[in-house]
Specification:
This protein is α+β, with helices and mostly antiparallel strands. The protein has one domain (26-170). Helices cover 15% and strands 34% of the residues. The model is unreliable at 171-182 (pLDDT under 50).
């Protein structure tokens, strides 16, 4: 009897806590072509395309949150058109001398709704170069799980290099202060 009562309370709690199916609409806002001299040109028709294009910056929204993605083409992958369960929390740029700089606010729009920079064709370091942050050798980004049980999950720490390879590390729970040695 106790087992049935406990199971029914858990099922009732699960029914009340589950998210309702809310449509998260994807909407493309603008497309900018980036030249070799690092200038952005907004493109609305193919006749407005400049001659030398390095990449495109596509600005879009998912459920009224603004994001940007850097691609070699103007197509946006399906995986970034819906929100994920991770939230981008911090980004630290490391230069060649080992100096660090907080670039969290700058990279927030490029992290995407899945918070892992998925879908970007250029590296995170090239995105920083586009915003006049030079001499960056690597970038550390941190994403946290936003689900109800996410408080028990470890954060995802990603190490981005200039060749657009992202290596994922999962931080142990018992480490509070981490000193990075480069």
């Amino acid at each position: 009897m106790f087992f049935i009562l406990t199971f029914s309370v858990l099922m009732l709690f699960r029914m009340l806590v589950t998210k309702k199916n809310v449509t998260r609409k994807y909407k493309r806002i603008s497309i900018c072509a980036v030249n070799e001299d690092n200038t952005e040109i907004e493109v609305t028709t193919p006749s407005q395309l400049p001659e030398n294009i390095n990449y495109f910056i596509i600005t879009y929204t998912v459920s009224d949150v603004l994001y940007k993605i850097c691609r070699n083409s103007i197509t946006v992958p399906q995986v970034v058109k819906k929100t994920g369960k991770y939230r981008y929390t911090q980004a630290i740029a490391i230069d060649e001398l080992g100096n660090t700089r907080d670039v969290t606010d700058l990279l927030k729009v490029y992290s995407g709704p899945v918070a892992t920079f998925l879908g970007n064709d250029i590296s995170v370091i090239d995105i920083l170069k586009h915003h006049d942050i030079k001499n960056v050798s690597s970038v550390l980004t941190v994403a946290r799980d936003t689900s109800w049980l996410g408080i028990f999950q470890d954060p995802i720490i990603m190490f981005h290099t200039a060749v657009n390879i992202t290596t994922m590390f999962y931080a142990p729970r018992n480490i509070h202060n981490v000193n990075l040695i480069v």
